[in-house]
Write the C-alpha cells for this entry.
Amino acid sequence: MSSTMRRKSLRRVPGPRPEPAASDVPAVSLGRLTKADFRADEYLKETLRSAETTNIRQFRKGLEDARKGASKNLQKNVYRNYESFVFISKEISSMERDMQLLRELLHGINEMGDELMEPEPDEASRVGRRRTQRMSMANQHDMFKDQLARLWRTVRESQRLVPFAPGRHVVGEARSVSELSPSTLQTRQKVDIVVLSDMVLVAARKRGGGAQTVLVADRAFELANVSVADVGDAARSGFLVKIVNRAETFLFGFKGGDAKNEFLLLISHAKAGVFADTGAPPPLPLAAARSEREDDGGAGEEQQRQLDALDIHIARREFDAATELVLRLQGRGVKAADAQAAALARLVLADLLMPCAGRAQVAQNVGLLHRLGWDKEAKGAFLAARSATIRNRTRQLRLEGNTQLYIRELAIVYFRLIRNTCDWYAELFADPTMISALIAWVRGEMAGYAVIFRRHVFHAMQRFQVVASCLNHTLAEVDILGHAGLDLKFMLDQEFFPDLTACVRSYEARSVALLTKAAGEDSL
C-alpha cells in the first residue's frame, strides 16, 4: 500500500519545463528588415504564425539586440564619414559664394553695356579732350610712379603685393589703426592702411632694430572685390569698420570718428574713380543707398521720406523699426532699400558676434537676420560668439597646483556651455538643414577640450589616481549631456583612447626599468 502511494506521489511532481529549442525560435531576418518595401504587419504574421509565448519573447529579445547593433554601426559610420561630409558642405558653401559673385559681375557687365549704348560726343569736344589728355598725361604718369616708389621704400615687401600698373596711384592712408578679431574684438596688431586707386594695402607695424618701428606689407585687396561697412560708433564697440573680401572678413578699429569717416571717404573716392572708367556703380553699401535713390523711377516724395527715415533708424541703431521699414520698401521694389538692408544686416551681425550677449538679445538679433535673409551668416556668427564665450570662461579658471579641481571646473564650463548652446540653437534655427553646422561646432569644441585635458593630465605624467579622477569628472558632465539627449561618449572615447594606451605603456616601461635596475643592484 505504501509503495503504491509513493508511486502516485512521484507521478504528480511536475518536472522542469523544457527550454524552447533553437529551431523553434523565429529568426530575425535582417535582409527583410532592410528592404525598401518592408511591411511590419505582414512580417510579424508570417514569422509568429505558430510561435508560442516563450518563442515570441526570445524573438523580441533578438529584435532588440539587432536594433542596438544597428544603432552602434550607424553611429560609427556617421562619425567615420563625418569629415567628408563637412568637407563637401564647405565646398557647396564656397560654390554658392562664387555663384553670387558671378551674378554680381554679370549684373555689372549688363550695366556697362547700357552705358556703352549712349551717343558719342561730337568731333570738336573729342579733339579738345584728346589735346588736354596729351598735355597732362606725361606729368600724371611721373607723379604716379613717384608715389609708388615712395610706397615701396616706406613699406617693406609692398612691391610684391602692389606692383607697378598703369594708372595705379595712392589716394590716401590711415595710420595707427588696430586690426581686431571679428569674434572676440581682441586687438591682433597695429597696422597702417594705404588706399590706392585700385587696391587696399594693409601694412603691419613691427619693431625693427632697437626701438624703431617699421612697416611690413601684410595683405592687399583688390578694390573691386571688397565691401566696406561702417559697424557703428557704439561705446562698447568703438569706431569700427569691417572690410569683406570674398569669403574673408576683417575688422579695423580707429581712434575716433573723424579718422574713421576720413578712411570711408578715401574708399568712396577710390571706388568712384575705379568704377567711373568701367561704367558700373560702386558697391559701397551706404553710398549706393543714396546714389540709387534718383534711379528708382517713380519714387515720389513719400519714398524719399521713408528712405531718409531708414537712414535715421540705422544711425540710431533702432534695428526693429529699420527692419520693418526696409522690408516694406523692398516689397514695393525700391532698389535703394537693398543696399541699406545689407548695411543693416552687417550691423546686426556685428552685435551678434559679441561673446557676452544675453539670450534675449541673441534671439532678437537672429530673428532680425532671419527676416533680412541672412540665416547662414547668423548661424556662423552665433557659433563663433559661443566659442568665444567658452574661451573667455576657460581663461578665468585658475590652475593652482590641483589638477583634479581644474579639470572638474573645465569640464563644467565646456560641457554645460555646449548644452546651453545646443538648446539655444534648436530654438533659434529651426531649419533641419542647419543641424550639420552645430554638429561640426560640437566636434570642434570637444577637440579643444581634449587638447587642454591632454596637456594637463597625460602630457604632465600624472598618477593613475589623478588620471582616473579627471576622467570621472569628465564622464559625469558627459552623462548630464546624455540625459539631455546629446550623447558624446563615443567622441570622448575616440579622443582619449590613444592617450590612455600610451599612458599605460609608458607606466609599464618605467616599471620594467625600475625592476631591472633593482635586480641589477641586488647583491644576492
Residues 1-18, 274-299 have pLDDT under 50 and may be disordered.
